[in-house]
Amino acid sequence: GLFFSEEPHGAAPVDFLQELPSCQSARRRRGGTQERRAAPQGPAATRVAEPRALEQDGGEQAARPAREYPLCIAEKRRLRDFQQADIKYLSRWKKWKRSSSKSLKKILSETKGVSSYLVLWRHDIHSIEGRFGTGIQSYFSFLRFLVLLNFIIFILMFSFVTLPIIISNYGIFNSTIAKISSKNIEYNCTIYEPSGNKGLVYFYTYLQDLLSGTGILEVTSLFYGYYTIDTVWISIMRYNLPLAYLLATFAYLALSLLWIIKRSVGGFKQNLVHDADPFQSYCNKVFAGWDFCITDPNAAQLKHRSLQYELQMDLAEERLKQKIADRTIKEKLRIYSLRIFINIIVIAVLSGCFYSIYRVTVFSQEKSNVSIRNDTRTDSIEAVQYLPSIVITLANFIGPQIFSFLIRFEDYLPAFEIILTLMRCVFLRLANIAVLLFSLWSQISDCAADKCEPCGYNYKLYPCWESDVGQEMYKLMIFDFIIILAFTLFMDFPRKLLVTHCSCKAIQWWGLQEFSISDNVLEIIYGQTICWIGTFFSPLLPAIATVKYFIIFYIKKMSLIHTRKPADKPIRASSSNFFFLVVLLIGLILAFIPVGVSIASIPSSKACGPFRNFNTSWQVVPDTILGFPRGLQQVLFGMASEAFAVPFFIVICLVMFYFMALAGAHKRVVEQLREQLVLVRFDSLY
C-alpha cells in the first residue's frame, strides 16, 4: 500500500506521515484508526523475525497476528505457519494464556464495533462530514461532547443530591429525613417567603415563571433553596446531604477539567505536528491536504476553494511578513499609534458593556426584590427582571461586530487577526457573566447602614441569595436558547427565502448567511460556562443544558443544510478542535472563581439550603472531619496546613521543571534529527 511500502533513503519519519490528513482519512476509510506498528518487511526481515519469536518463546512477535504485519500475502502465510508450528513448543500455561488473550481481544473488538453504532448522532455527523468537510464536522462533534458532559454532570448531581430526598419523601428503603433546625440563628435571618402565585392568576403568569424561574419553580428541586435538609436516613445508614452537595460540586468541576484536558491532548499533538515547520505546512496542503471523506460535489468544490484560500493566505502572510520587515521607522510609528488608538476604542466598548450590565443588574434586582417583598408584581416589574439578560445579549451581538470592523485597520497577519478577534469576543462574553455575578454579589454583601446585621449578608433584599443567583443563571440559559432559536427562525429563514425567490441584485449580493464555526462555538461555550457556574445554585441546570444542546444540534444542522452556507474562509480544521477545547477550558477556569468565592467567602443563607447552620458552605468539611477518630483528624488537618502545603508545592515545582527540561531535550534532539534528514536528502542528490 501507499503507506506501508519501504521508505526511500532520507524519507520523512513514519510518525510524521501518520499525522498527515490523507493518511488518517485512508485509515478511517479502511475502518481502522490504530497506529501502524513497526514490523519486519520483506523476506529478509521475516527470516530475522522467526528466530526472534523462537527465542522469545511465545513473546510479542509470535503473539501478534500475521495480518498486522505490512507484508505480502505469501510472507504473511509463511509467518502464520511458523507461528502455528511454534505453538507445540509452548507449555500448557502459555498456550492457555495465548488462547485466552486472543479470545479477549476478539470479544473487545466485537464489543467496540457494536458500541460504535450506539454513539450519539453517529450517522448525522458522518453525513455532515461527507457534505461539508471536517472543519464543520468538528463543531458538531464538539456539540456532542458537551451534550454527553452535561448529561454526566446531571446524573452526578441528581444521584447524590436530589435522589436521596426523593427516596426519603416516598419512604423507599424505610428512609426518613431530618430537616435542618435553626441553631443560634436570629429569627429575622430565617424569614424566607418564595414568590409563589397566590389566588387566581393568568396563564401568562405561569409562562413568566417558566422563563424566569420564579413562582412555583422557586420551591422545587430545581433551585438551591429546596434542599433544606440536614440528614437522610436510608434504613440505618446516615447520609450527610450538605457534605454530599459540596463534594458533588467539586466532582463535576474536576470531571469537566480532566475530560477537557484528556480531549485536548490529541489536538495539542496534532498542532505541534502541523505547526512545526512552515515548509511542512505547504507540503501538507499540496500533497496531503485533500479530505477523502467528502462525497458531495458541492462540498468538494468548497474544499477546493478552502485549500486555495489557505494557500493564498499563506502566500499573502509571507508577503506581509516581508512588508513588515521592510517598514521604516515612520511607518512603524504610524501603525503602532493607530493600534493604540483602536485598542483604546476596544477598551471603551468593553467598559461601556460592563458598566451597562452592572447598572442594569443593580436596578433590576432592587426593583424586583422590592416588588416581591411588597407583593406588588406588575407587568413592568416582570419586564425589569429580564433587563440583565437583554443587555448581555445585545452586548454579545454588537461587540463582535465592532471588533471585526476595527481589526481591519490594525494591519496584523491574517492568522493573528482571527485569533485576536476571537479572543476579544471570548473575553467580552465571559467577562459579561463575571460582571453580572459581581453586580449580584455587591448587592448581596452590601452592608451599609447595618443591612447585614446579624446575618452577615443583605438578608432583607436576598433572604435566600443562592436561589436568586441560580435564577439569574437559569434566565441566561433560557434566554440564550430563545435567541439562538429566534435567529434561525426569524432571520435565517426569511433571508433564505429572499435570496432564493428574489432576483434583485442587492439581495443576491447580500447572499446567504455564512455558517461561522468560531461564532457558533463561542455561543455554546458561553452557555456551558453559565451551566458550570449555575449548577451549584441550581443542581438540575445540567439537565436543562443537555436538552438545550440536544435541540440546538438539530437547529444548527437544519440551518447549515437549508438556510446557511459554509464559510469561504474557514478556520483551519487541523487546529479547530484544540482551539475549541482551549476556549472551553478558559470558561471552566472562569467558573471556578465565582463558585469558589460562593463556597469559601460569602456567608451562606440562614433561611434556606443545606448550609444554613454553617457560616460558609466550606465549613461543612472541617465540621465533618471533627467527627472522625482523633488520629485521622490530625492527618487530615496536617495535610491542610502550611507545613504540608509548602513542601508539596516545592516537589510539584521540581517535577514540573524536570518535565520541562526533558521536553526541551527532546525538542533539541528532534531539531538535530531534522537537520540530519536535510543533510541526507542533499547527500542523496550527489
TrEMBL record:
Record's subcellular location: Membrane
InterPro entries (alphabetical): TMC, TMC_dom
Domain of life: Eukaryota
Regions crossing the membrane: 145-167, 243-261, 340-358, 386-407, 419-441, 473-490, 532-555, 576-602, 644-665
Region entry Disordered, spans: 15-63
Keyword Transmembrane in record: yes
TMC domain mapped to chain residues: 464-574
Gene Ontology CC annotation, any one: plasma membrane
Record-level Gene Ontology MF annotations: mechanosensitive monoatomic ion channel activity
Keywords: Membrane, Transmembrane, Transmembrane helix
Pfam families membership: TMC
Membrane topology: Multi-pass membrane protein
Family, as annotated: Belongs to the TMC family.
The name this protein goes by in its record: Transmembrane channel-like protein
Organism: Rhegmatorhina hoffmannsi (white-breasted antbird)
Designated gene of the protein: Tmc7
